Amino acid sequence: MTDTNVDLILAAFDAVNAGDLDALMELWAPDIEVDMSRALGPMRGVYRGEEAQRGFIDFRESWQSERSEPHEFIEEGEHVVVPSTTHFVGRDGIGVQARVTWAFTIRDGMIVRVRFYQDKQEALEALGLEE
User: Fold this and answer.
1) The CATH number of the domain where 50 resides is what?
2) What are the pLDDT tens digits along the chain (131 aa)?
3) Which of 55, 47, 7 lies closest to 27, judged by CA?
4) Distance from C-alpha of 4 to C-alpha of 113, rounded to nearest angstrom
5) Beta strands of the chain (E only): which ranges?
6) Burial letters for 98-129: b for 16+ Cβ neighbours within 10 Å, e otherwise?
7) Which residue range(s) make up the domain with 76?
8) Model pTM?
9) Within a domain: residue 81?
């Protein structure tokens, strides 16, 4: 168990970067909500519980490798906003980068909601936070 919400999110990024799905699932609440409704492409939608876990696995399997680099952690109450860059290598060896912002909600030491945003300001505004 981690001491702070930021520590919890750091552990989630570490698990994703290590490809350790079991470690990541230990940080997610069983009824987690992953909101990808602002995403482009086939992952667009809102996923809950096991559906969110399956979606994560399917997405990971479509890439040869994936590494997420958080740029900062903005903690406000139960929320942690994380602008980041993810580096992907496709099955054909072509590299791609995506700059996005994630907003995590933590309750009782578990990640209960993950929301995808195109940029930091959009995430902060959606949560009613000022930079």
Assistant:
1) 3.10.450.50
2) 345 999 999 999 999 999 888 999 999 999 999 999 998 877 888 999 888 878 777 777 777 788 999 999 999 999 999 999 989 888 888 888 999 999 999 999 999 999 999 999 999 999 988 76
3) 7
4) 16
5) 28-35, 46-48, 63-70, 74-76, 79-90, 95-107, 110-117
6) eebbbbbbbeeebbbbbbbbeebeebbeebee
7) 5-125
8) 0.89
9) yes
